[in-house]
Specification:
Domain STAS (chains A, B): 528-634
Pfam family, one (chains A, B): STAS
GO biological process, one term (chains A, B): transmembrane transport
Number of strands of chain A: 8
Number of helices of chain A: 27
Keywords (chains A, B): Membrane, Transmembrane, Transmembrane helix, Transport
Organism (chains A, B): Solanum pinnatisectum
Radius of gyration of chain A: 33 Å
Strand order of the largest sheet of chain A: 2-1-3-5-7-8
Strand content of chain A: under 5%
Oligomer: homodimer
Largest interface: A-B, 83 and 82 residues
Distance between the termini of chain A: 40 Å
């Protein structure tokens, strides 16, 4: 039954022929891949993919689609259209409650933040429609605008610069949203935000020492060293009233205790939310009744009630500082967006709805532009408020409207009262919000998982702490990008082997010790997404070293390398340096009588190689779709020409 | 013969069981991959890999190895040890000829370059051991040091700054070489060098207008606009002698004609090589005999003969400009290295020998340090000289020694003569060398192959041309790195399908239109080497859009997506943002009742996911080694629970 030797060889040859046919066919697929699009087409596609959300829906084909499109566009702009039709009285009860709770948290917080931004307190309250000023943006704004003009010297110029910055921040936000550049927000990585927030929280806390101790001459700088030096100097130079400190600390303890109670007993969630307002009212009344402001307790003093006045005339679009103001606007806008979108995303994933980052950016941008025209400074989404709003049981955006009305009423009625609010209370309200910003657990998790991310985190943290807020941001973004570049530069190669029990599965022999290499064939995978100027030389050297090393080591077993298979499946892009490198590698290997085989180049790489006429130099016969095909082809060559094993 | 239905089912189930066993085994390999090395180990390995060339050879195990190691180390430092033993009289004849030819090219070129660097001409000649000053470094040096001190105002301070810069350049070069940071040279990509050289050549040519026309008041700036303005101003303000121009142009034409002849007739290679020296001698004699220097022809004038004086006392390591000088030293050192290594590589690949970039860097660094102490300014390998040396038939480095001796003799004897050398001749010598630096063909090739590389090229070119040399370099490096980052940010995803006629080969369905997708299973490959903060959000959105899109489109065929297979074989590294993204994607898909399956994560990714406890969240059963395994597992689940097709 068993075939004669001759027959067996002929069957084997037939089989080889069949295999070769399959290989050739697959190589043809590879080489005859779709033609590359022209440069212009590629550019247009790339831009339109970025700018237009859904290409197909942009030019609707019929009027019905068109109507639906317009309605969904309007819904996107005015969400009331989508929920307004189903709104019920029962829902209003929830929203009213949530709105009032929110207002009681927001009023003291916002006044505090305005203080942090070196602005008069009413500017914090003007901005309470849905979102409001947050600590980090306030700090950033005051730190950067102070470099242009000192608020103690020229408060009017300072305020107008702040509005101009807000205007630019809004313009940038809206522009980024309209151009669908939402990905810009991702430049601040998770690790960078953790570090930045931690550092900012400490800086913000230190700034509060001014009000808490009642210092008159403070520093404009934000770094730890300057602030602590200013504090110690004031102990020597100024006659400080201990009243400020006692007042601030006792209310801080009160707020923290209510928060602890609220956490233990979920039903009392409103207690920590109204505690700040309660503190402000009680403390203000105390100061007003005891006339403590005449005995060293610092109070707000400046407070102008009434609705937002227009601030169009305060915007400055000329003058020598325009460049700087634009830059600050860009930075503040991006940081505000980052915070808003981080908050939005965490609540979206909690509540299971989808958040369109670009739409959020447009909305926030227009809000800030309008804000800058009506005496509001840069605002953004705040985590603590959104959290309170949710836990207070809000149903729709009506809760925010309720809150806004409450704030407006306070602006009208409480003007007199807020005049006497002690600064120490505002400091304690802000201080009570800070522990949530410092996330040591997350920093530890980052350290465990990714040391490089931890360096980003620490870089942002210490940059903010010891230099300045914007340097901290720059360090974080810089390290993050340096890491991407470093990953590309330090591209590695790995030797692949066939997994036992599989036909065509080749894997890293370090990762899978069971993988076996085929004798005489060195399979090397390039471990980099891009084969470019930064890594092409080192990859060529690594490949040559692997070849020399293998040939040197296994001299005894007479199993030298006769073929090199270069697996390019990971290489997504190649530049001219990379192509030159491939040609050089080919030349170098051929001079050692080792043919270079290329397996699985990607579409973009094939197109580049075609234009560079690289295939002509390497030889079209040496390019295969899979490693398996390449290995089979090499083996059949070895069988056909056994002398090659001796070369 | 055919089995009963029941039997057939049982066989099928058995087969399924076998398949599942294989899958499970492979998944176990995947999950039980080697433990990640500790952070310290990884750091030490990474540093030692960069710093130590061959780890195994560093600590030799026996005395014989040790002896051989020391000898090869000495050979590396003093190559004469390797070729000196086989040197023959016949070889010296060749070397003598090559050395003399080289000297005749180098003397006029070096004096010209020293002039370009705003130094007295002898400084160019002092440095002629093996390599010498080149145009680009001379230009860079003069452009940057002129910003510190104007050579017209304080030539002594200028010269001492140049030596100090040379010292720092040498120190940086040696340090980079010793730390094996040779890859730093790759930061200037091929495209950047083409653009930079082209721009520098034009700038250098424009600088020569000063000598060629005989302008007395020129500009210190290097950009096209300033130089042309200075030239036109001089036409108005100065009484220019046409003699300079006529002299320069006629000898330029002479040099170019000899080059043309040399190219046509390979035997006359020495003609273009000695043409510059011939021109200098003839022109100098003409000026000396006709006393043309008293009739408006500008001559060198300052020339101090003799051997190199020591310049240790001229180095300045304190003073307010130290930081700037260090920076200039770094830039000049890197540019000099880039040029030298580019030259070295092209000749190495031509002649088929291997070039160790790090060793070259150490050698060049020490040479420049010694040079800075002996009145030499930053030197590097020059393409034109190396080419002449090779075509003159040099055998060993002896040809360079011959050249050096010739130069020293000229320094002693020709002092008087060189005093009368007209500046216009030096300009024409430099101008004749420039066309080789402008490589329009290569620029066109870059445009054809890679548009982004072309932008790098044009950026470097126009930066050098319109702003300054260092800005041109910065632009080129900046764009090159921005491109790496952009590639990572614009990471894409592609839908994979099974190739017909293969068992386990899945490919991009755009690249291979023949690939067929499995119904109900969406296979998505992440097209990026790194899954990080910069692209994780966009990848998540792309995956979700693909799922929604497929579900939306194929509603008619009732073939909704039931499983998503995420092929991670391209992802070489992941950071905390990437891991958070995977968890979010999992949560989002599960909420739509679609399990997320991960195929072929790499070793580094697996280790990160293990530390982040990501497997616990995703479920270990949903991770497979190959796409094929993942698809089979999904299919068997679908068979086992047909109701899932209706979910």
């Amino acid at each position: 039954m068993c075939p004669q030797p001759n027959e067996s060889i002929s069957i084997e040859l037939q089989q080889l022929q069949l295999d070769a046919d399959g290989r050739n066919e697959r190589t043809q697929w590879l080489l005859n891949s779709p033609e590359p699009p022209s440069f212009c087409n590629e550019l247009i596609n790339s831009v339109s993919e970025t700018v237009l959300p859904q290409k197909n829906n942009f030019f609707p084909s019929n009027s019905k689609q068109c109507k639906a499109g317009v309605f969904s566009f309007l819904q996107g702009l005015f969400p009331i259209l989508s929920w307004g039709r189903n709104y019920k009285a029962n829902m209003f009860k929830h929203d009213l409650l949530a709105g009032l709770t929110l207002a009681s948290l927001c009023i003291p917080q916002s006044i505090g933040y305005a203080n942090l931004a070196n602005l008069e307190p009413q500017y914090g309250l003007f901005h309470e429609l849905a979102i409001g000023p947050v600590a980090v943006v306030s700090l950033l704004l005051s730190a950067m605008v102070t470099n242009i003009v000192d608020p103690a010297v020229d408060p009017i110029a300072y305020t107008s610069f702040v509005f101009t910055v807000t205007f630019f921040a809004g313009t940038f936000q809206a522009a980024f949203g309209l151009l669908r550049l939402g990905f810009l927000v991702d430049f601040l990585s998770h690790a960078a935000i953790v570090g930045f927030m931690g550092g900012a929280a400490i800086i913000i806390g230190l700034q509060q020492l001014k009000s808490l101790i009642g210092i008159s001459h403070f520093t404009n700088k934000t770094d730890v060293v300057s602030v602590l030096r200013a504090v110690f100097r004031s102990f020597h130079d100024e006659a400080l009233s201990p009243m400020n400190f006692i007042l601030g600390c006792s209310f801080l303890i009160f707020i923290l205790v209510t928060r602890f109670i609220g956490k233990r007993n979920k039903k009392l969630f409103w207690l920590p939310a109204i505690a700040p307002l309660l503190s402000v009212i009680v403390a203000t009344l105390m100061v007003y009744l005891t006339k403590a402001d005449q005995h060293g307790v610092k109070i707000v003093k400046h407070f102008k009630g009434g609705l937002n006045p227009s601030s169009i005339h305060q915007l400055q679009f000329n003058g020598p500082h325009l460049g700087q103001v634009t830059k600050i606007g860009l930075i503040c806008g991006l940081v505000a967006l980052t915070e808003a979108i981080a908050v939005g995303r965490s609540f979206a994933s909690m509540k299971g709805y989808h958040l369109d980052g670009n739409k959020e950016m447009v909305a926030m941008g227009f809000m800030n532009i309008v804000g800058s025209l009506t005496s509001c400074y840069t605002a953004t989404g705040s985590f603590s408020r959104t959290a309170v709003n949710f836990s207070a049981g809000c149903e729709t955006v009506v809760s925010n409207i309720v809150m806004a009305i409450t704030v407006f009423i306070s602006l009208e009625l409480l003007t007199k009262l807020l005049y006497y609010t002690p600064l120490a209370i505002l400091a304690s309200v802000i201080l009570s919000a800070l522990p949530g910003l410092i996330d040591i657990n997350e920093a530890y998790h980052i350290w465990k998982v990714d040391k490089m991310d931890f360096i980003v985190c620490i870089g942002a943290f210490s940059g903010v702490l010891f230099v300045s807020v914007e340097i901290g941001l720059l360090i974080a973004v810089g390290i993050s990008f340096a890491r991407i570049i470093l990953d590309t530069i330090r591209a590695s190669t790995e030797v692949q082997g066939r997994l036992p029990g599989t036909l065509d599965t080749f894997c890293d022999i370090t990762q899978y010790p069971g993988a076996t290499s085929t004798s005489g064939i060195l399979i090397i995978r390039i471990n980099s997404g891009s084969l470019c100027f930064a890594n092409s030389t080192s990859i060529r050297e690594r490949v040559m070293k692997l070849v020399t090393h293998t040939n040197g080591n296994e001299e005894n077993t007479k199993e030298n390398v006769h073929f090199v298979v270069l697996d390019m499946s990971n290489v997504m892009s190649v530049d001219t340096s990379g192509i030159v490198m491939l040609e050089e590698l080919h030349r170098e290997l051929v001079s050692q009588n080792i043919p270079l085989t290329i397996a699985n180049p990607r579409l973009r790489v094939i197109n580049k190689m075609k234009t560079a006429k690289c295939f002509d130099k390497l030889g079209k016969g040496w390019i295969f779709l899979t490693i398996g095909d390449a290995v089979d082809a090499c083996l059949s060559l070895k069988i056909a020409d056994p002398s090659s094993t001796n070369c």
